[in-house]
UniProtKB/TrEMBL annotation:
Enzyme Commission code: 5.4.2.6
Record protein name field: Beta-phosphoglucomutase
Keywords of the record: Carbohydrate metabolism, Isomerase, Magnesium, Metal-binding, Phosphoprotein
Superkingdom classification of source: Bacteria
Sequence similarity: Belongs to the HAD-like hydrolase superfamily. CbbY/CbbZ/Gph/YieH family.
Cofactors required: Mg(2+)
One MF annotation (Gene Ontology) recorded for this entry: beta-phosphoglucomutase activity
Lineage: Bacteria, Pseudomonadati, Pseudomonadota, Gammaproteobacteria, Methylococcales
Length: 259
């Protein structure tokens, strides 16, 4: 079945002559876990903002699950998302330490609080995947394309295992790699460039597939041969403005051919 806004027919063709690899974002592209992330971010930020407003005698302004998520946290490492959103509200907290408990009022404390909420949701609701994405990945592999998953999430491996799709990828770069190798998070291109190196491909011969503005910006910053935006939430213009070469409503609109 076509997704809303999708034609249901291929409108873009990826040729093996032009490209050697395709690099996929996880949340919102491969899996439907984006809605779990949004719910976890909203619960964490609303709880924190409401408590802060009560303490300071200010008006509580809740986290907007559309605008705030898309502009400040989508596609970014957790602590970067916390910093970006709080800055939009004029709030500055101490960075703290990655080991901060979720109750601590620090950037890392809030980031860890959000992660705890997300993992609880993941455990109770499970992982859904987009069938059209898996169909495209299997087609790409059959044609000799190399395939990687690139995510800011430290839970990427667990999500792939829970969905039973870990074996579909030739390489994985995730939040654990960013921390260990001191890579900058999206919109910097570091994670995608690291994936291209692991695959042994030139970025100019690879396509980045993203649904987040920060991810599209990262693909363009890395000078990848193609950046494909996936618009499942009605933000086609924003993805195009961020630099996507092509924007589709669903990956069923993408075909792959040997030549």
């Amino acid at each position: 079945m076509a997704m809303p806004g999708s034609t249901g027919q291929p409108t873009l063709t990826l040729s093996r002559v032009a490209f050697d690899a395709v690099l996929f974002d996880l949340d919102g592209v491969i899996t439907r876990t984006a809605k779990l992330h949004i719910a976890a971010w909203k619960t964490m930020f609303d709880d924190y903002l409401e408590q802060r407003a009560r303490r300071l005698g200010e008006t509580f302004q809740p986290f907007d699950p559309d605008r705030d998520y898309r502009e400040f946290v989508d596609g970014k490492a957790r602590h970067d998302g916390v910093v970006g959103f709080l800055a939009s509200r004029g709030i500055v907290l101490p960075l703290g330490d990655p080991g901060d408990p979720p109750e601590r009022e620090s950037v890392w404390g809030l980031a860890n609080r959000k992660n705890r909420l997300y993992l609880d949701l993941l455990a109770t609701r499970g992982v859904e995947v987009f069938p059209s994405t898996l169909t495209l990945i299997r087609r790409l592999r059959a044609l000799g394309f190399k395939v990687a998953v690139v995510s800011a999430s430290k839970n990427c491996a667990e999500v792939l295992r829970a969905a039973g799709i870990a074996a579909l990828f030739d390489a994985r770069v995730d939040g654990l790699d960013l921390e260990r190798d001191r890579l900058r998070g999206k919109p910097a291109p570091d994670s995608f460039l690291a994936a291209a190196r692991r695959l042994g491909v030139d970025p100019a011969r690879a396509v980045v597939v993203e649904d987040a503005i920060a991810g599209v910006q990262a693909g363009r910053a890395g000078r990848f041969g193609g950046v494909l935006g996936v618009d499942r939430t009605g933000h086609r213009d924003a993805l195009a403005a961020a630099g996507a070469h092509w924007v589709v409503a669903d990956l069923e609109e993408v075909a792959a051919v040997p030549a």
